[in-house]
Design brief:
Helices cover 50% and strands 14% of the residues. It has 17 helices and eight strands. Strands 1-2-3-4-5-6-7-8 form an eight-stranded parallel sheet. Bound molecules: hypoxanthine and zinc ion (ZN).
Length: 347
């Protein structure tokens, strides 16, 4: 990293964090559904939801672990029926991302949550893709899609989902793996990931969120992922830390998610700073911002306030977000130039 970062007074750090251009590499588009939009879509589609009001729904967002969140998250996604619903959801997220100076995003979507309810892959992908195209034109945000398999379902189900997605191959940048981690190790999906690799998809997987470091090893060595989503439990395994640092495998860390799902007791105990200081390519992301209390800039400002990270950490995190993205080398270089300019101008 050749760019030299000037020290910045602590009281100006939040402004720097908000203003710097950044990429978001770990967010589930269904996790951007705000309670207001859930109610609007439920009413538009005549779908019943078991909450009387927006306030009552929001007050149910008190999670104790990943599964307690997933139960509510899948229920919320049941209001999505038409292509326009998927468009509206993604447009709302992309506007919030643009306001946080996110200039590039690679968004996860969970098609099995929708196809299991009779919503077609075409409806899902076309609605989301149209929002990505419009975001470039209207907001200057480049956005693309990563299809995630649900790991609590079978590998056979994942193969079927892949088949349904192939007609839209050109609209899908990569493949990921999400949902309940413990008891569903990466190797359960070895064959389907091997097929996705042959097909030329980029590969990522959630690992080491609630699951052990062994799941991070098998995500790397069996699934052959290029980035690890979360990965925070890697710090329990010094050899794994070495491997991640040496190979510059990015971890897409989500501090407010980890706080809300009780992966860490408080933000001051979060290990993001430790990961960065150990030379890992960590990034900051919002995961499911409507459920976890904040979009990108809230993740940055709250985590920096709690951990005492400084402008050098801010630069590393933003730079890592571009380096770890799946855009081509010239586009990466252009984003890094923009990042450097924003740090130079900030004084
Ligand atoms: N972990 C696993 N699955 C998910 C998550 C997460 O943080 N968010 C949405 N699906
Ligand atoms: Zn996630």
């Amino acid at each position: 990293m050749t760019f030299s970062v000037k020290p910045i007074a602590a009281d100006r750090l939040p402004e720097l964090l908000r203003r710097m251009p950044k990429a978001e590499l770990h967010m589930h588009i269904e996790g951007s559904l705000e309670p207001e939009l859930i109610f609007a879509l439920a009413s538009r589609n005549g779908v019943a939801i078991p909450y009387a009001s927006v306030e009552e729904l929001r007050s149910a967002y008190a999670f104790t672990n990943l599964q307690s969140f997933l139960d509510i998250y899948y229920a919320g996604a049941s209001v999505l029926i038409t292509e326009q619903d998927f468009y509206d959801m993604a447009q709302a997220y992309l506007r919030k991302a643009a306001a946080d100076n996110v200039v590039h995003t690679e968004m996860f979507f969970d098609p099995q949550t929708h196809t299991a309810r009779g919503v077609s892959m075409e409806t899902v992908v076309k609605g989301l893709h149209r929002a990505c195209v419009d975001a470039q034109a209207e907001l200057g945000v480049s956005a693309s899609l990563i299809l995630c398999f649900l790991r609590h379902l079978s590998e056979e189900d994942a193969f079927e989902t892949l088949e349904q997605a192939l007609p839209f191959r050109d609209l899908i940048l990569g493949i990921g793996l999400d949902s309940g981690e413990v008891g569903n190790p990466p190797e359960k999906f070895a064959r389907v990931f091997a097929r996705c690799r042959e097909l030329g998809f980029h590969l990522v997987a959630h690992a080491g969120e609630e699951g052990p470091p062994e799941y991070v090893w098998t995500a790397l060595d069996v699934l052959k992922v290029e980035r690890v989503d979360h990965g925070v439990r890697s710090s329990r395994d010094p050899l794994l830390m070495q491997r991640l640092a040496q190979d510059r495998i990015a971890l897409t860390v989500c501090p407010l998610s980890n706080l809300k799902l009780c992966v860490f007791p408080d933000l001051a105990s979060h290990n993001l700073r430790e990961l960065l200081d150990a030379g890992l390519a960590a990034t900051v992301n919002s995961d499911d911002p409507a459920y976890f209390g904040g979009y990108m800039n809230e993740n940055f400002t709250q985590t920096f306030a709690a951990t005492g990270m400084d402008a050098r950490h801010a630069y590393m995190l933003a730079r890592n977000s571009f380096e770890a993205s799946f855009i081509d080398a010239p586009a990466k270089a252009r984003y890094v130039d923009r990042l450097n300019e924003s740090f130079e101008r900030f004084s």
